[in-house]
Structures are given as C-alpha cells and as structure tokens.
Design a protein that fits this description.
Largest sheet of chain A: 6 strands, mixed
Number of strands of chain A: 17
Structural class of chain A: alpha/beta
Number of helices of chain A: 14
Strand order of the largest sheet of chain A: 2-1-3-8-7-6
Oligomer: homodimer
Largest interface: A-B, 107 and 117 residues
Chain lengths: ~450, ~450
C-alpha cells in the first residue's frame, strides 16, 4: 500500500468553479495546468473539486479542500455578473466579509475609459476582496486575484483565488504564484523527475519488469498509457546537492531493465523519434499504406520539418492501386492475396521504386470489423520494410495478429511500422519489435 | 440567487481517479463527457472530484460525493496493477468486501489466450467486485465496470464504476448506463434528445443562431465542441405520449435555423457522412494529399467498409512526388508554387487520372510552424476537387487561411476537404463550405 504523501512540499488542492465545467460544455484544462506546474516544484495536489456557480456548492468545495490542504488554488467565479460567486464564498468560509479596494476600483474604471466603453456598475464587484486579502494583479484582464489566510481550527491554510480565463490565470500563476510558493519551500530540498517513453510492453509487463527496481524511500515510479505508448516516470525528492545524482542512478536502473522498449526519454512520440533518426542518418522515407489508410503518413507529418525526410507515398487501399502505383504483380495478389508477406514486400519495394526514397515501409491487413476469414482473421496485419542491407533482397516482412477495433488495429499497425523504421535506423533487426499493450490505464 | 436544483432528474456526482489527472499529465475529458451526457437526459452534476491513486483519498472522494448525490459515476482505478484501487475503496465505503467473479475471471483468461500472451496473475484482480455489484460488461477491454448500492444512513445512493479508458468508458456509458438511468425515471415521464453534428459555425455563432429558438419550459439546448465538429443537442422531458412529438417540433426549429451547417443527426462524424453519400451515389474517391499528409485517407478509412468507395491515392509531400505520381507540371510548380490553386487543381485531376476514381480531392498548404511567407503565411491551405460536372474543366479550388498549430491546420484541412466532397455529393457548390470555429471555449 502506498503511503499518503510522497512529496516534500506543502499539500495543495485545486478548485474549479463554473457551470460550463459541470454541464459538459468545457473541458477543465486549468486544473491540469496548475497541477503540472505545482508537481514540477514538488507540490502534490491531493484533490481537484469542480462545482457549478452556486454559493452552497462553492462553499462546500472550499471547506473540503481547505480541510486537507495547506494551499488551495481556485479558478473561476471572479467575473462581474450575478453568477460569479467565488469571493463571497471564500469570505463566508474565512468568516469575514468583502471590502472594496479603492486602487483596484480605480484600475477597473481606467480600463473601461481606455477601451472607450461605459463601465457597467456591477464591474465594481471585481474590486471587492475578503478582508486581509493580498491582491494579485491581473495584467491581461479586469479580474484581479488574491491570496488570503483562512483560519481553520488550529490551522492557517491559504486560499489562492485566480480568474478562470486560461491566459490570465496562467500568467498570474507563472509570474506571481509559483515564485511565491518557491519562496515558501525549505531552501535545500528539490524534486526532479525523468520520463521514459516505451513501446512493446504492456503497462503490467512494465510494472513487472520494474518490480523491486526502485527503493520506495529513494524514488517513485509512475506510469501513463497513451495508447499505443506507455510512459514510465521516475521521481526523486532530495537535498538539492543530491537529487540530480540520485535521479540519474535510478534512471540508469530503468534503462537497463527496459532495454530497447524505451524509445526515448522525455516528452516525445514515436514519430518524433523516427524523424530525428531519419534526419541524423540522412535517409528519406516513403510509405505504401493499405490497411493503415494514410495514418503512418499522417503521424510522420505531424512532426514539424518532416518534409526534409518524408517524401510521401501511396495509399494503396484497392488492389488495383497496389498494381498501378506500386507495381505489385497480379500473380502475387492472386496466389497469396492482398494480406500476405509477398504482397507487403512488393509494396515496400514499390514504394522505394516509385518515389526514390531510401526506405519504403508497407502495411497491409484486415482492420475489420468485416473481411476476416478463418485463416486470416480480423487483426491480421503484415508489415514490410524495404531498405539497403536488409536480408538478401533488401526487404523484410512479418505477419502480426493484432487486436481491438478498427481504429486500434490501424493505430497499432502504424506504431509497429514506425518501430520497424526506428529499429532499422538503430541497427537492430526490425523483427525484434514486439508489443503487448492494452491501451490507456484502466 | 439561483435555486439549487434546476433539472428534473436525480442529482449526480462524478469522480475521476488517477495520479495522471492530479499531476498534470492528463486532461480529464472523461468527466466532461459524462457531464454532458447526463445533462442531456436531465440529470444535474453537482460536483466532480478528482484524486490520485491513494486509497484514503479515493475513499474521501466517494464519501463526499455519495453524501450529496443519488448516483455517483467514477472512472479510473480499475486496472490490474497495484495502484488501481477503486474497487477496494468502494467496497470499504459500502462496508463490504471484494469477491472474485468466475465468469469475469474466465473472460479475462480467454482474452489473453485469444491474443496469444501469457496472463500476468495480477490481471485476475480485474475480476474482483464488491459484494452485491451488478457487473457492466466491457466489450472493448479487460476492465469490466459495475453498479452497486451503497447504504448510507437512510439513503441508498448508487455507485457506478467505469474504467478510465475513454473509448471503453464511453461505450459502456452510452450502451448501458444511460439506458439504465432512463429506466429509473418515473413511469409516465421520459427524456428524449436529438443531436445535430455541425461544421462551419463556431459555438458562439451557433449559440446566436439558436437564440430564443427553444422555450426553456419546452426543451433544453446543449453544445459540445469536439474540434472541428460542434454538436448541438436538444432535449425534452415530458409525458411519454408527448415527448416524441415535442422533440420533433424542436428538432425542426434547429434544422431550419442551422441549415447546411448540420452535417448529420445523431452520433456520427464527417467521414461517416461522406462514406454514406459516396455509397449512395455509387461514386469512388481518391486523395492527393500534401499538407494533410495522409490524414484525409486515414479518416476515410476509419469507417468500416470504406474499401467499397475509397480506392486510396497519393501522399504527395515532396514536389517531386507531385510530379512523378500525380503529373503536376514542373512549370506550374515553378510559376505558382506548391501552395497554389493551380497546383492543387493539377493534383486533384492527377488523383483521378492515376487511380481511375470518380472524385479526386487534393490538399496543399503550409501547416507550420515554419515555411510561411508574407504572401503565404502559415495556415494558407488550398483545397481542390476534381469531379464530373464541376465548372467547365471538372475541377474547383479555393485558398483558405486557417489558424492554430500544425495539427489543427491539418485537421481543419481534412475537415474542409471532406466537407467539399459532402457538398458536391449533395448537389451544393463546394465553395459554400465555410467555417469560423475558434476552437475551445475559454
């Protein structure tokens, strides 16, 4: 069983306020942003509570958040209209009242003067703050934020109140809240982490491979599956002078245990890695896609600058196009079928020939839900790679049995195809690409 | 002051569980999805609580959610690893224990047998459920969900536990939870809704276009932006005998106000609509993709059965491939550039010629972040369609100025390209395809 507090910093909680967040109209990206920024400085977020614009619910959220956190950061509910209720709720929880801040009131008046519009009287509401609040200026909008201590039995947790507009909230968090939080931390502690992107092992297989690798007193492992990649993160908290060395020690253990399943360190994707390798090795790539339908090309071209190594290729969805544009033989299709190693190899070779690229990667398969047979069920996929130095005739191929629905089969096909390119460029046998992912964390 | 309960159905709460949600690695889109679906059937969400994978915090979230809601829907924490703790926490809150369900255990064993991998022993954890739970099958993954009554003083709120994988969660919610919730409503009342998928208008433009259209006493409107589509849902709650007629009345108002911006009714995508139209009109389609890099083909082939109307095409990312495979003239590229109406038209015509398809759709543009010029900034995209009956030479084209990052420009490009095919098949001028989306609401 995991213990209840892993990080050295104070415990934080986040509150997101707004009807649009609980009726499904808006995804709450503010909480994610704040949580990531806090985590990066070693502050753990214990809870995120989201409520609509009702005073009782906002008070409820504050009471429960303040009960287990030393810092509670809230966004939303600071606008000028009747359903903006954060400040009066905070005042209620803090057992105090709202008071007009003349400086802020003047700033709001001037803002309206500057933009040449009359100020609706209710805008002055944005100059009301709980007694004792330290105002956090908002350079990008009219809603200032604030910090205020909320006496709660013996404790004195701090409420940090920010507007809900992401641009304004982010600027205030980065420029004012994060520096303030860092000033609160003990001088000599810091939290560092490193992320490994993997492919070829399921989350549970990674879990097993890393069992006992990291002493829980030294560091912490976490996993995130973003199908078809799984990332592993190792985090340490230590004295400033020790943290970096310890992180590197633990990272080395992860590297050794996971081997070639690690496709990269840091926040990156398979297509980024493949792009970087193609660029480094000065090779160009072409695709011949049947069952992946353009997905391999689409992923490769999601990487900025991919035009320097990706020439394009053929989406050969019909058999006719496999022949017309890639030169697959009619006899090959007749005797082995479109989903066969023979066809895939001719497609990969055809992609090189038709485009002049250094590497040709081909996919053909049955993505389903229809089209499967007893011999070649849905999920049967063939990958082939044509490139200098592969086997005797510069091409390799393999049949896979993939699973999942149509989109998963396509996605997994594209991932294996990209992993073949990666392994070839690293000087590994492409056929060592394995996989057993389950997709996102359940 | 607003009253505290606006909708006719029961009060709900949502819990999202997972370290990745409170450390900023993953944006919680599950809660938004669930909130929107509940809102559409008249169930109000009072709170969303997000916690990491710690038993005490999960229990805390359940206790506080169950205290003010009749139905609590949770996602996450149902995986096979040690940090998947939802079920044991729910059992603790419900004052019961976990028990192995043999049927589920067998299903999991068979799943691993089918994919030909040994089952890690810890996967059997996914067959443990609180005593009294009604299992909700998961057709797309190994983590089944369940419903269980949690006796709480005099109340008997219901816990609904779903996996965190969005695809699996969504299918289980749509197919099993929503129908079950609808069956809980009083016998003579029912809630019906209809969804319109739109393209070409921003959420605020839709909001304006529908202003005053629906009497709030008769029905409710809700919006969901899933870039680049925005869906509009109209919902009525009424006596069984009246609901259907009223819904149709309101749906007709929406249809009239939104016109051709509605691409379909129901849960469907642009590629589904285009596929259905191609099939109905017995036409085949080929692509010639430059800046979209394979995305148009990828989206078309996400639709099962697309091989009956999609032949494939060319990803002509380099200028050389535009010439080699699509027959674009060197002189056209030299005098007008790759991103020009002239090049796009030759690409679209070339796609038809090279493949023999009835329609050829071409994209070329500057997806960024590099490659823009003063005359053709990042986001400049040209779409061309070649098909019988278009203008004098069977091809039309248009330059667009799109916005957003590289992936948005690509996505929007593919959406406009598909909308051209849709409009052409409907007998409309493809150039009437407009759009003014801003992306997500702040």
């Amino acid at each position: 069983m995991r213990n209840d507090h892993n990080t050295p910093g104070p415990i934080a909680a986040i509150i997101s306020t707004g009807d649009e967040l609980v009726n499904g109209r808006t995804v709450d990206t503010n909480a994610t942003f704040i949580a990531e920024r806090l985590g990066a400085i070693g502050i753990e977020v214990r809870s995120v509570i989201t409520v609509g614009d009702y005073p009782d619910r906002i008070v409820w959220a504050w009471q429960h958040s303040l009960a287990h956190a030393e810092v509670v950061i809230s966004t939303g509910g600071l606008g000028p209209t009747a359903d903006d209720l954060t400040s009066e709720s905070v005042a209620r929880v803090a057992g105090t009242e709202l008071r007009l801040d003349e400086t802020e009131a003047e700033r709001i008046r001037q803002h309206f003067q500057k933009v040449g519009r009359p100020m609706p009287e209710n805008n002055l509401k944005q100059a009301l703050f709980p007694v004792g609040a330290e105002i956090i200026p908002n350079k990008l909008g009219t809603a200032a934020g604030y910090r205020v201590v909320v006496p709660l039995n013996e404790r004195r947790p701090i409420a940090v109140v920010l507007p809900g507009v992401p641009r304004e909230m982010k600027a205030m968090l980065e420029d004012q809240i994060i520096p303030w939080l860092l000033r609160q931390a003990p001088e000599d502690r810091c939290t560092l982490s490193r992320t490994f992107q993997t492919f070829g092992m399921s989350e549970s297989a990674l879990d097993e491979a890393l069992e006992g690798a990291i002493d829980p007193d030294k560091g912490r492992l976490s996993f995130r599956a973003s199908f078809p990649q799984v990332s592993v993160r190792v985090t340490v908290t230590d004295r400033r002078t020790h943290a970096e060395r310890r992180l590197e020690e633990l990272a080395q253990i992860v590297r050794e245990r996971l081997g070639a399943a690690v496709i990269a360190e840091g926040e990156t994707t398979m297509e980024d890695v493949v792009g970087r390798l193609l660029r480094e090795h000065k090779r160009t790539l072409a695709v011949a896609e049947s069952c992946s339908g353009g997905l391999v090309g689409n992923r490769i071209t999601n990487v900025p600058g991919s035009s320097s190594y990706f020439v394009g290729g053929v989406i050969a969805y019909s058999n006719e196009l496999k022949q017309r544009l890639l030169g697959v033989q009619q006899s090959t299709l007749t005797s082995h079928g479109a989903v066969s190693e023979e066809t895939a190899r001719e497609m990969a070779l055809g992609a090189r020939r038709a485009t002049g690229a250094d590497l040709g990667i081909a996919t053909t398969g049955i993505a389903g839900p229809d089209g499967g047979t007893a011999e070649k069920p849905v999920g049967t996929v063939v990958i082939a790679l044509a490139a200098d130095g592969l086997d005797s005739d510069n091409v390799r191929s393999r049949i896979y049995r993939l699973w999942g629905n149509r989109e998963w089969v396509k996605l997994l096909t594209s991932q294996v195809a990209l992993d073949w390119v990666r392994r070839y460029l690293l000087g590994l046998d492409p056929l060592t690409s394995v996989f057993g992912m389950r997709g996102r964390k359940h």
